[in-house]
Design goal:
It is a single chain. By secondary structure, this protein is mainly beta. The chain has a six-stranded antiparallel barrel. 0% of the residues lie in helices and 50% in strands. It has one domain: Thrombin, subunit H (Beta Barrel), CATH 2.40.10.
Length: 104
């Protein structure tokens, strides 16, 4: 499987600290002990954009079980009719999603 490539949707006013990567991966999320399927749309070291049928609210703390990374704790920061934006508590090594390691 090929690693994700960065893309840049940022406007000049967008001050994201980390590049986002378009991905197409299934995942699972948990909130209050309940699990739900989700789909990872894009990801950065500090957050992700998900699609899910699970109803969530801004401020909800969730755990997203990411491929090759395991459970990652985050907070819902934005909702649209079709997507959920999550900010992670720590930083994610994006290359791990594809089972790859980063050489230092």
């Amino acid at each position: 499987m090929n690693p994700p490539r960065p893309f840049d949707r940022r406007s000049k006013s967008d001050r994201r600290a980390f590049p986002r990567y378009a991905v197409d991966l299934p995942a699972h999320l948990s909130i209050n002990g309940m699990s739900a399927a989700c789909h990872l749309v894009d990801v950065s070291a500090s957050g992700a954009l998900l699609r899910t049928d699970r109803r969530l609210g801004v401020g909800d703390r969730i755990s997203v079980d990411l491929p090759h990374c395991g459970p990652t704790i985050g907070t819902v920061v934005r909702l649209t009719p079709s997507h959920v934006a999550v900010s992670f508590r720590g930083l994610l090594v994006v290359s791990k999603l594809y089972g790859q390691t980063v050489n230092a």
